[in-house]
Design a protein that fits this description.
20 strands; FAD/NAD(P)-binding domain; 28% helix
């Protein structure tokens, strides 16, 4: 039995844990990185990357399918087995890259085991070994939730952690959960020829504000049914899984659960860590330091359920690792503007801070259903709200459902990070004809509400209609 002594022990070798260990070590601390498998990050193995590989295949099929509107005639011939083979092959390449970086860790840093707290600064490993650490970082990630109500059909249940292991695409699938994961996978599978029906227990999808949720709902339901405010019950059926909901039922070959990803706290014995826990048994922490209460325990990534996306996990791991190495001299970090993207088509995004009361801010609107470039692309659908605070129109938040929203969201996030006003953004270059050009409409809305103006707006030089996002009539900027 071994007794390890270290400055910083990190539990979990995902994105947050790898960042925490690296930055603690770079700060001069001795480190241990403890993980039961070192299988690669959630993003590379079962999250961001394999889902985008599936979406890429779906996009290719949809491009062929929609060719008729451009005068092209063809139909996609989807080889499900080949699609899934490519997903796994490239997924494995991404995972291999992560494992390669883990293999380069200094000798003695990586410890393969499960860990649990045995008191402040002390861990017990399943091997019987112990760890004494001056500071500890919890970076255990999260896992797909499989409610007990679906236990009777568990052999036919898929999650994002098992879907990509399918040898072929199913003929039909019921999807439980209308969050980003459920929506992305449901649309991708539908576009690849799977008969999909999605059930969401609330009146919104994608975690979006009502306006953007309604806009995305309108686009997606052209492709597959979505039942809002609906709880479906599952039961075994000779042909698969029978889902029953008010007034209806249907049989599906498989069931995809996308009902959330709670933090992995099971078996950690957090009650022995000497930290404050909330009513759900999760650590109370400071999002600018990642510190749990005033202890030498820090928490980062999906484990804290605050901003469960990869770039935030990396940032939080960095903050946690540096502060764990420096403890008790903890420093507060300036966090980046929040940014989340859902990779449906059209995409959806939320940036910055959305107002609780619309009367507390200025709001500009863009309707991408009548935006020039979107119409040319055959993707004219979506709605964008941009919010600003103060009399100067400083941008504070935005919600989008729009083609190319992943790129538009970055532009808005950068502008917010730089503290720009609507007028200052309008003074930046906008190329014509682009999707980004449509943002000018919302920015001008804000300027009109705040009384701001600039060289882009003169009473004697009205803008062509297209530059307001409407049509190409009268435009000579080619």
């Amino acid at each position: 039995m071994t007794s390890y002594q270290t400055d910083v022990a990190v539990i979990g070798a995902g994105t947050a844990g790898l960042a925490a260990e690296r930055h603690a070590r770079q700060a001069g601390a001795s480190t241990l990185l403890i993980d039961p498998a070192f299988a690669g990050t959630t993003c590379a193995s079962v999250g961001c990357m394999p889902s985008k590989l599936l979406i890429a295949a779906a996009d290719a099929a949809q491009t062929i399918r929609e060719g008729a509107q451009f005068g092209l005639g063809a139909k996609p011939d989807v080889d499900g087995a080949a699609v899934m083979q490519r997903v796994r092959r490239l997924r494995d390449d991404f995972v291999a890259g992560v494992r390669s970086s883990i293999a380069k860790l200094p000798d003695g840093v990586a410890v393969t085991a499960r860990a649990r707290f045995d008191g402040p600064g002390r861990l017990l490993l399943e091997t019987g070994d112990t760890v004494e650490a001056r500071a500890i970082v919890i970076a255990t990630g999260s896992s797909s939730l499989v409610p007990e109500a679906f236990s009777a059909v568990s052999d036919l249940v898929l999650t994002n952690e098992s879907l990509f292991e399918l040898e072929d695409l199913p003929h039909s699938i019921g999807v439980i959960g209308g969050g980003p994961v459920g929506l992305e996978l449901a649309q991708a599978l539908s576009r690849l020829g799977v008969d999909v029906t999605l059930f969401e227990g609330s009146d919104r999808i994608g975690g979006l504000p009502k306006a953007q949720s309604d806009s995305l709902y309108g686009a997606l339901t052209r492709e597959f049914p979505i039942h809002l405010n609906t709880e479906a019950e599952a039961a075994p059926d000779p042909d698969g899984v029978r889902l029953t909901w008010p007034g209806n039922s249907a049989v599906f070959e498989r069931l995809l659960l996308a009902a959330g990803r709670p933090p992995n706290f099971q078996g950690l014995d957090l009650d022995r860590a000497g930290i404050e826990l909330d009513e759900n048994g999760a650590p109370v922490f400071d999002r600018e330091t990642m510190q749990c209460s005033d202890s030498a325990v820090f928490i980062a990534g999906d484990a804290n359920a605050d901003r469960p996306v990869l770039h935030e996990a990396s940032d939080e791991g960095t903050i946690a690792g540096r502060n764990a190495a420096a403890w008790p001299d903890v420093s507060r970090a300036v966090r980046k503007v929040p940014l989340t993207v859902t990779f449906t088509r059209p995409e959806a995004a939320v940036i910055g801070t959305l107002p609780e009361n619309p009367d507390d801010c200025h709001t500009g609107v863009v309707d991408f259903g009548d935006q020039g470039r979107a119409r040319a692309m055959g993707q004219a659908h979506g709605l964008c709200h941009v919010h600003a605070t103060g009399s100067d129109g400083k941008l504070s938040g935005a919600a989008l459902c729009a083609p190319g929203a992943e790129h538009l969201a970055h532009l808005l996030a950068w502008a917010m990070q730089c503290g720009l006003t609507a007028t200052e953004v309008l003074d930046l270059p906008f190329y014509h004809p682009t999707l980004a050009e449509g943002l000018q409409t919302a920015l001008r809305d804000i300027c009109s509400q705040t009384g701001q103006a600039g060289p882009w707006q003169r009473d004697d030089d009205p803008l062509p209609g297209d530059l307001r996002g409407a049509s190409w009539a009268g435009c000579t900027a080619f």
